[in-house]
Design brief:
Layout: H1 5-17, H2 21-30, H3 44-51, H4 53-80, H5 87-103, H6 116-126, H7 128-145, H8 148-170, H9 176-191, H10 193-200
C-alpha cells in the first residue's frame, strides 16, 4: 500500500510543474504570450531572447525550484514517512511529474517548454554527482557550439549514461535508476527535435547572435 505514494507524487509534481513561469512572468509584466514569440517555446531561453535578462533569470529560478521541490518532496516522504519505498524512486516520481507538467501544463492548454531547467533540478535531487556530470557535458558543448539546444541534448544523453555506469554498474543500484533516467533524457531530446533539424541544416540560433529582422 505504501507504493500508492508514487502515483500521488506524480500528480502533485505534475500540478506543480504545470505552473509555467515563463508564461506567467511575460504575461504579468508585458501582457504577452511567450509562445507567440521566437521559437514558441515556453522556457527561459526564449524569454531571454525576446524579453531580456531579468525575466529570464526569474523564469530560470522558479522553473528550477518547482522541479527541486517536487523531487525533494518525494525523496523526503519516502525516506521518513514511507520507508518501504526507495527514496530515489520517490524523487523520480515527483520529479518526472514536474517535468511532465512543464512540458504539457494543465493550466495552459498543454503547451509548455522543453523541460531542461526543471530536469536539471530533479537530477540534482536524485544524484548530485549525475547533476555535475550533466552540467559538465552541457558546459563543454555550449562553449564549443554556443548553442543552448545542443548543450541541452548533450546533458540529456549524459544523464542516463552516468546513472548506468556509476549507479547501476559501479554501485550496484537497481536497474530502474538508469531506466527512468533514460525516460527523462529521451523526453528532453524528443522535445528538441526541431532544434536537431536546425542544427543539421546550420540554422540553429547561437547564443549572442542578433535576432533577424
Amino acid at each position: 500500500m505504501e507504493f500508492l505514494i508514487l502515483p500521488a507524487l506524480l500528480v502533485v509534481g505534475y500540478l506543480l510543474g504545470s505552473m509555467s513561469f515563463s508564461i506567467m512572468i511575460v504575461d504579468r509584466f508585458f501582457r504577452k504570450d511567450i509562445r507567440d514569440y521566437g521559437s514558441g517555446n515556453a522556457g527561459m531561453t526564449n524569454v531571454l531572447r525576446n524579453f531580456g535578462k531579468w525575466p529570464a533569470v526569474f523564469t530560470f529560478v522558479f522553473d528550477f525550484l518547482k522541479g527541486a521541490v517536487s523531487a525533494a518532496l518525494g525523496l523526503l516522504l519516502c525516506t521518513y514517512v514511507f520507508p518501504a519505498v526507495p527514496a530515489m524512486l520517490g524523487a523520480y516520481a515527483g520529479g518526472i511529474g514536474a517535468v511532465a507538467g512543464h512540458l504539457y501544463p494543465a493550466y495552459y492548454h498543454f503547451k509548455g517548454g522543453k523541460g531542461v531547467t526543471t530536469s536539471i533540478a530533479v537530477i540534482l535531487v536524485i544524484s548530485p554527482l549525475a547533476a555535475a556530470a550533466v552540467f559538465a557535458a552541457f558546459l563543454v558543448v555550449f562553449l564549443c557550439t554556443k548553442m543552448v539546444s545542443a548543450a541541452s541534448i548533450a546533458g540529456a544523453v549524459m544523464f542516463p549514461l552516468f546513472m548506468l555506469c556509476y549507479h547501476v554498474l559501479y554501485r550496484g543500484d537497481p536497474w530502474w535508476t538508469a531506466a527512468l533516467a533514460l525516460v527523462m533524457g529521451v523526453t528532453v531530446i524528443i522535445k528538441h527535435r526541431a532544434n536537431i533539424v536546425r542544427i543539421a541544416t546550420g540554422q540553429e540560433y547561437r547564443f549572442g547572435q542578433k535576432k533577424k529582422a
